[in-house]
Amino acid sequence: MPDWAYARRTDDAYDSSGLTRGPWHPDHQHAGPPSALVCRAIEQEAAALGLQHIGRLTSNLLRPVPIAPLQVTVRVEYAGRNAAHLAAELIAGDKVVARFTALAQRESPIDLPAHFLDHPHGVRPPEESPACFPPFYRPESVGYFKFVEVRLARGEFFNGPCFVWFRVTKPLVDNETLSAYQRVAVAADCGNGISKVLSFDTHLFMNSDLTINLSRRPRGEWIGLDAMTYLGPDGCGLAESALYDLDGRIGRATQSLFVRHKNEA
Q1: 3-state SS, residue 180
Q2: Taking a C-beta distance cutoff of 8 angstroms, is the pair 191, 210 a contact?
Q3: Is 210 contained in some domain?
Q4: What was the pLDDT predicted at 115?
Q5: Residue 68 class from Cβ within 10 Å (0-12 exposed, 13-18 middle, 19+ buried)?
């Protein structure tokens, strides 16, 4: 079992481990870990500008991310006193496999009334929620579901709307402790899968993007997704997840979907 998702080769180059493996192909990564890897680089660039909060992270997934050496590049497109716009690329070999944009913001404490803490109703805390695994999970396999602990708080896992808690159990890069934003990025791409409404046996339903909007810095190890999938009759769809930590609502994640019968793929 690998000790971390990525091993750093240089400041912007990384080796990928099997913990990043996703459900669609044995040689391809789940989009959560590489999104977190890029988020890490964006956080570092934003911190150098004196900006602490990542208010938005958008991933445009151009092609499958291979379980292979990766390079991350980040540039600042605009930086002001209160906000900056950043862009990043994830590169495998000589191909750009994903492009990212982000909004970094300056934090400034304000007093808020208690009702601004939006807790989900009818949701069990992680310690009272059963562990759950996707239908394709194999205990002997190395992949994303060995990188995270998953607990079902409401609904039915991988069968329609549900609330699921995620906790990353291993370092993202070498022996580093994950930031709160990286924990969100690892989990947020799962909304499509955990709230699926069609069978893996008959359909493909994959996302080509991911947008995370956060109203505040997440706290703690557990990230909750209150996820729902909406499908249209034309082979397109949307997965939408309200995001939580143990203190309440932190934001929202959306994924644009394409849906195909497997015999048409």
Answers
A1: helix
A2: no
A3: yes
A4: 65
A5: middle
118 located within any domain: no
Domain that holds residue 142: 6-107+130-264
**Tally of structural domains, the chain:** 1
Number of C-beta neighbours around residue 265 at 10 A: 9
The predicted model scores a pTM of 0.95
Which residues of the chain are under the pLDDT cut of 50? none
Instruction: Tell me the β-bridge partners of 104.
Output: 54, 84
How far apart are the C-alpha atoms of 14 and 35, rounded to whole Å? Answer: 13
Classified as helix, coil or strand, 20 is helix
Measure the N-to-C terminal CA separation of the chain; round to a whole number of Å.
33
Give the model's pLDDT for residue 203.
Answer: 84
Give the Cα separation of 184 and 232 in Å (integer).
Answer: 27
Which two tokens mark 112? 């808020």
Classify residue 114: in a domain, yes or no.
Answer: no
* CATH number, position 90: 2.40.160.210
Nearest CA-CA partner of 43 in 204, 195, 259, 212: 212
